[in-house]
Amino acid sequence: MSTSQRTGDQQATTHTPTGLVAFAWALVGVPLAYGLYNTVKAASALFGG
Amino acid sequence: MAVPSFLARERIIARPGFNRWLIPPAALAVHLCIGQAYATSVYKAALVSHFDSSLTAIGIIFSIAIVMLGLSAAVFGTWVDRNGPRAAMFTAACFWSAGFLVGALGISTEQLWLVYLGYGVLGGIGLGIGYISPVSTLIKWFPDRPGLATGMAIMGFGGGALIASPLSRQLMNWYDPTYDGTIGTTPTGAAVAQLFVTLGIVYLAFMMFGAFIIRVPAPDWRPDGFDPSTVKAKSLVTTENVSANNAIKTPQFWLLWTVLFCNVTAGIGILEQAAPMIQDFFRNGETSAVAAATAAGFVGLLSLFNMGGRFVWSSTSDYIGRKPIYMVYLGVGLVLYVLLATVGSTATWVFVILAAIIISFYGGGFATVPAYLRDLFGTYQVGAIHGRLLTAWAAAGIAGPLIINGVLDARGTPGQLTAGDYRPALFIMVGLLAVGFVANLLIKPVAEKWFEPKDTDAPTTASTTGDRSLSR
Lengths: 49, 472
Fold this sequence. Notes:
The structure holds two protein chains of two kinds.
Chain A: H1 3-11, H2 18-43
Chain B: H1 23-34, H2 44-50, H3 55-83, H4 85-108, H5 112-132, H6 135-141, H7 146-175, H8 189-213, H9 228-232, H10 244-247, H11 251-271, H12 274-281, E1 283-284, E2 287-288, H13 292-320, H14 322-343, H15 348-377, H16 382-389, H17 391-411, H18 419-441, H19 459-464, H20 468-471
Antiparallel strand pairs in B: 1-2
Helix pairs in contact in B: 1-7, 1-8, 2-3, 3-4, 3-5, 3-16, 3-17, 4-5, 4-8, 6-7, 7-8, 7-13, 7-15, 11-15, 11-17, 11-18, 12-13, 13-14, 13-15, 14-15, 14-18, 15-16, 17-18
């Protein structure tokens, strides 16, 4: 594929499905929330005596 | 070195209309996995018991991984910039996963050298390539907020440990029901081997997801409403480009190397000793006012501030500038270290607050440095320059523990140390932070003689029009 063809291809617009963006954020957000929850739980020992 | 076409940079150039908010989760998918490197303490005792070895011999696994991180980031940085983030993430996923699988084989066959080779060498290469893989892409997608973008990804590295620690405990409990994760119980070697296999497979899938949703912006792409001239208006920010080979010839690179080295060494001084340190600071004879469970909570709190600092401080740097934020990390950090050494033992809450803020600066220093590099050297080969700068991390990973352990070894035996025994080490860190503060003050804009010719743009252009970096 030549550079000019590629450039031509790049002119076509695209639409990123909102569901894909939400899914991607959920995929990283859920494990992170799990880690945060467990760490906060462990850290609470510091304040609980 | 050519890559298969499905990994090539030109295959992942985003079309107009692509949503750039798909890029941070792609970066996080990698950093959340490789952040496991900071959760090795979970199975350290199990490996000592399984190999009938010493803590030092097992600790070498992590040391090799961190040294390989620095070396591979430095060596493969240019390759990462040239071939793009998908090839880099794919490669990192293969190395990181292979590291766990070879490590599992080493544990199962009781061959410690295989664990060194697997987790240490192969995993370390995966760490280095994975760490830098999304950074330059994020900077290009978020020219308006580079600190926020890199802060999000590098926050993931801190977050990876938060996930891996409890997950590893749960998995090892499944594989060895006699282990319940509490202090005093140790999982079997077989359980750790099964954990390694599980993590190797899960991380491979997760990182591949990131590799296949990542895209690079077209060379002429700009965010809506973004005017590059507003960025140029800030001091120290260039719209020119400097190659990685030229960057390391500039004083700015080495000053920033010194800044990162000093900031990381000082942070490691606390992180390395966090649990015993808080107990020793409040020791009265043979006993400490701080229980082991509370000390573990302190380690958790530091992890939260380490992760939060990466996002909060790096995002803040978009508003106040990179040089001023490092003046805060190093200058305020220096004052906090002095306070820790002098009044840190007066009350637990004083100690905890001081240490937590210091660690947030440690994390912030990591997360802000790619944007600082972008400001000084442009986006052309910022990934490769970042990779070379990370040798400061590898050096600090050796220097930090050496300083703190060397001082403490000379002062007494573990379990009998008090706050006063930590003071020499803390004042060494104060000196280091002062050196870093001066180095940061000395950073000036890069001289014009290092700039690439005007037609040089980001490697996106270079790779699609014949690789310029190869011809240099």
